[in-house]
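Example 5.3 — Oxidoreductase
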Amino acid sequence: MEKLRMGVIGTSDHYELRVATPLKSSLLVEPYGIASRNLEKAKAYAQKWDFSRAYGSYEELLADPNIDFVYTPLPNYLHLELIKKAADAGKPVICEKPLGLNAREAVEAAEYCAKKGVPVMEAFMYRFHPQWRRAAEIVKCGEIGTVVSTNGLFSYNLKDGSNIRNIAAAGGGAILDIGCYTVSSARLLMGGEPERVVATLIRDPVFKTDILVSALLDFGGGRVSSFTIGTQAYPYQRVTALGTGGALSVKVPFNSYADTPGELTVNSGLGGRVVETEIVDQYLLEFDNFAEAIINKTEVPTPISDAIANMAVLDALFASAVSGSWEPVRKY
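Solution (predicted structure tokens):
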């Protein structure tokens, strides 16, 4: 099968660190073109990561008929604009999370791509890891009963003011960068959407970005998820789910290692066990699954409706941090 030629918009560190090497093993995706607003920078990046073409503008890449789909790992505030430009060029697009700065942008992106007949997917790589597929199966089959609560912890320590994650105007901050993961995983394990949320939030006095956030998500019927995220704290991550008949915990839920098995701890009436899943690279799975959907003309594996629902919760978290009260999650 001939590989799909991918165009990457932006010479990002994220692509270098997490995506470039896994895609060398892909049977479906060929990293074909790289675009930067600086042609010399694009050429150097292309040489380093074996791209066939380098472009001195994003528009030039999008105009290339050899590009089958595009990937954008650029900052959050550029996502909607670039998704629209890709759709105008008729290019399917996989966009880094979050899909936009708020749910309104996510809806606008979805409607625009639908009008143009172009597939779009939010790049939540963790959803493709077999440890999460197995966790979802355990919940679905009822092994731990009805999930009544989940808890998420996700943090890192980054105090560099030049880093895009610490620039408020570019969509930096904890909620958009990592809160999207703790909300997404809670929605997955709880099997639904929260009705309302309440959150506390601390901002950096210089950066003005949210650096420490704790929240409760009320799913109704007494079922509540909680999480704490931080961008100036000890690096740590863990997700647990408590059910009426057991519990499970995902050891490294989001930044799982590509050279070690995934690991779940499961406790139920029969006892406790550690479940190991196969060694995979979740980024390779993410891009291959997206490419397969394009080739087969099927729905993308993570539907755009999921991105919109996730953003609606993030919006409510921001609103609660301002009001100091429970805020409803808007339905779209």
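Remark. The domain at 4-125 is CATH 3.40.50.720 (Rossmann fold).
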